[in-house]
Amino acid sequence: MSLRDWPIKQKLTAMLLLISGLVLLLTAAAFVTYEVVAFRQMTLKDLSTLGRIIAANSTASLAFANEADAREILSALRAEPHVVAAGLYDKDGRVFSRYPADLPGEALPAAPGQDGYRFEQGYVIGFEPVAEVGNARLGTLFLKSDMKAVSRTLRLSAAIATGVLAISLLAAYLLAAVLQGRISQPILALAETAKAVSIRHDYSVRASKLGEDELGALTDAFNQMLGRIEDQDRALRESKSKLQHYATELEQRVADRTHELEQRNEALRRNAAELLAANTELDAFAYSVSHDLRAPLRSIDGFSQVLLEDYAAQLDEAGRDSLKRVRAASQRMGALIDDLLKLAWVTRAELRTEVVDLSGMARDIAAELQRTTPERRVEFAIAQGLEARGDPRLLRGRIRGHRRRPRDGPPHYHPARRPDLGRGRRRSGSDVLLHAVMARSAGPRLLTPTSP
Which end of the chain is less enclosed by CB atoms within 10 A, N or C? Predict the structure, then answer.
């Protein structure tokens, strides 16, 4: 488990121990370093003092070249166990005496070195001049001491530092275990409260405040947040209840409306069935009426034509005119029957609105009338550029019926009048919307009231 996943108690304890251990380690290192440096300096100082004493005692033996006396003086170094080698050089640089007496010749330098004391190759060595006060130099004293004392002092200091460090860390751990609770306890209390809220969804829970420090302020802020969440949760539950009520009411309304629409649809289906039956009966009636009326009309028209063709010479002008009127009336009656059949068909057909050129349609109708009755001289006044939007079939029938018809007698045109087939709007104006309007007396009307 990584450090970030540790419990906060362990994190705080580890942090305190780490800081304490680091401080103690640096302190111990400084202490050991100081002890080593100080002991090395003391070793140099002690060896230098010993060297000056031996050199002062060796002046007589070098001055009188008394080798036995020199060996006896050097043998006094047995009292110093760390001195492993010593030698006395004359003024010419030759070895005059050595310590211990059985020391090999290669253990001593071949010639004296520079005066002074220093650390070299794990030993402390020194060259001390031998001379009487105010006289020339008689020779040189060489001393070589091991570092066992320094090593022993270093190990002792390290052991002391380790012991102090261990005891200090143990004390720091005990103190950390006691003191970290003042920091971790409020945080753990917040964590437990948050966990309880998350599991039970109970926003009425509040965390305990254990102090007035930053953690206390954090606890207050957390409790205030829980209070706001509790209010929002209460409002949300109320809104949810209202929405549920509205949804139930809306479902009921939809069900009622659906039932009402089903009833209306059923009524519409019944009406459509009744209308279809009525239209079927109307078709049958219209066909029957047209068939029953066409037979006598054809007879009247045929016999009238026979009279005009075979007996025209025996009739006067009034008789011939009456026969013509009879034929015109029968023909007009046949046209009315055709119009009734067409009207029955039109009322069931769907209107197809499109832009219609009324001027062109009027010219076509005028040409058709001139072809059917060439003996009549009629002047048509048709305006140019008239358009309308409507059903072309119904518009054509309406324009064809826009003639002056007397209630009896053949169709005629007043000699002083000109049929006007061009009422409407020109292309430069707005379109005229023409539609079919059923009327009992006037039949289908296809023209909305407009100004010319």
Answer: N
Which long-range contacts (C-beta less than 8 Å, at least 24 apart) are formed by 159-164?
A: 161/28, 161/29, 161/31, 161/32, 162/28, 164/24, 164/28
Work out the pLDDT band at 263, boundaries 50, 70, 90: very high
**Region of residue 108 (phi > 0: left; psi between -120 and 50: alpha; otherwise: beta):** beta
Quote the CA–CA distance of 186 and 181 in Å, as a whole number. Answer: 8
Is the overall model pTM greater than 0.85, yes or no?
no
- Please check whether residue 69 is in contact with residue 165, taking contact to mean a CB–CB distance below 8 angstroms: no
DSSP type of residue 76? G
Q: Which structure tokens are listed for 148?
A: 């066992």
Residue 329 corresponds to which tokens in the numbers above? 């009336």
DSSP secondary structure letters along 80-131: -TTEEEEEEEETTS-EEEEESTT--GGGS-SS---SEEEEETTEEEEEEEEE
Q: What is the DSSP string of 326-355?
A: HHHHHHHHHHHHHHHHHHHHHHHSPP--EE
Six token digits for residue 368 = 């058709």
The single-letter code of the amino acid at 333 is M
* Residue 97, beta-bridge partner list: 88
Written as six digits, the tokens of 301 are 């028209």
CA distance 326 to 314: 18
3-state SS, residue 141? strand
Could you give the angle at the alpha carbon of 251 between the alpha carbons of 247 and 252, nearest 5°? 120
Confidence bin at 451 (pLDDT 50/70/90): very low
Q: Which residues of 249-287 are buried (b: 16+ CB within 10 A; e: fewer)?
A: eeeeeeeeeeeeeeeeeeeeeeeeeeeeeeeeeeeeebe
Pairing of strands 116-120, 387-390: unpaired
User: Mind listing the pLDDT tens digit for each residue in 3-24?
Assistant: 676 777 777 778 878 888 888 8
Question: Distance (Å, rounded) from C-alpha 163 to C-alpha 158?
Answer: 9
Helix, strand, coil percentages for the chain (3-state, nearest 5) = 60, 10, 25
How many other C-beta atoms lie within 10 A of the C-beta of residue 139? 26
Mean pLDDT of the chain: 77
Let me know: does 88 contact 70? Beta carbons within 8 Å: yes
Degrees to nearest 5, angle at CA 89 with 87 and 95: 75
